[in-house]
Design a protein that fits this description.
54% helix, Conserved hypothetical protein from pyrococcus furiosus pfu- 392566-001, ParB domain, mainly alpha, 290 residues
């Protein structure tokens, strides 16, 4: 056990070591310091590309749309999706603006941010001189990267059909697009499944096809693709069809409920095993009735 005097001596020794390290650190020659003698040549990086300011938090409503912007805004569905994401996470990628507040990149982020209730948002100002041609090039690079490069609607549809046709056709044949028990509307589970498929498409396309665009293309593909003939259902009476549809809907709901309970049971099993391990460390489990 150290005495108070020994503790004080130990603290003083540590303080002296820290001071020595600090002095050694500031003694290292650095570019731009007067009287510093550089032992090695340190290369000075040349400016490359467009110079941007540090991130500033500007009032979104004060930022002006760019008259040179020829890209169409997001659809209502895509804008709502972006708004929800910003409402949850904020604007993660700064807008690019000119020094007078004119937006070069980020028109949709501004709209969605205001709709999400944000007053200010992250932005970087362009400090380099801009010509209209360079301004358009910046917009093109940004929008092409975010909206799928040069992919046309036909190319996006082809990508989805080649990679996800089986999943789309399964939903199309499954009769999940509404019946008398759902008021002619898709069930909640179907809607979630479609959303998951759209997100899967966005991920596999590496962002070239947004989930909102994927949903619209999926709907178009389903409209163009006739449903396969139902083998045997034409022989059923209307009463039998209604009963079969109801039973099928119940079965799907029960299966999903069982899956939820299975996940919960798995989590409870892990908790039980962890508690048993801790109880064994404390004492004999049988003494506590387990």
């Amino acid at each position: 056990m150290l005495t108070e005097l020994e503790k004080e001596q130990k603290r003083e020794a540590k303080l002296k070591r820290d001071i020595a390290k600090f002095k050694a650190n500031i003694a290292i020659p650095r570019p731009g310091t007067s009287g510093a003698i550089l032992q090695t040549d340190i290369p000075v990086l040349e400016k490359h590309g467009i110079e941007l300011s540090d991130i500033l938090y500007l009032t979104l409503a004060d930022l002006r749309d760019n008259p040179l912007n020829q890209y169409p805004p997001l659809s209502d569905e895509e804008l709502e999706e972006l708004t929800e994401d910003i409402r949850e996470k904020g604007i993660l990628i700064a807008l690019i603006v000119k020094q007078d507040g004119t937006i070069v990149c980020g028109h949709n982020r501004k709209r969605a941010g205001i709709k999400a209730g944000l007053v200010r948002g992250p932005a970087q100002q362009i400090l380099s001189a801009l010509t209209p041609e360079l301004e358009r090039d910046i917009m093109k690079s940004e929008n092409d990267r975010r909206r799928g490069g040069q992919w046309s609607k036909e190319q996006k549809e082809k990508f989805i059909q080649e990679n996800f046709e089986a999943e789309i056709q399964t939903d199309n044949r499954g009769g999940d697009h509404g019946n008398q028990y759902t008021g002619g509307k898709s069930s909640v589970n179907l809607g979630q499944g479609e959303t998951n498929l759209a997100r899967k498409i966005e991920k596999q396309s590496r962002g070239r096809i947004t989930s909102g665009t994927a949903k619209r293309i999926i709907a178009d593909i389903r409209k163009k693709t006739p449903k396969k003939a139902d083998s045997g259902t034409d022989r059923l009476s209307e009463k039998e069809k209604r009963r079969a549809e109801k039973l099928a809907l119940n079965i799907r709901t029960w299966r999903e409920t069982k899956a939820v309970f299975a996940r919960k049971m798995e989590a409870l099993d892990k908790l039980e095993k962890a508690a048993l391990r801790e109880l064994k460390m404390i004492g004999q489990p049988h003494l506590f009735g387990v």
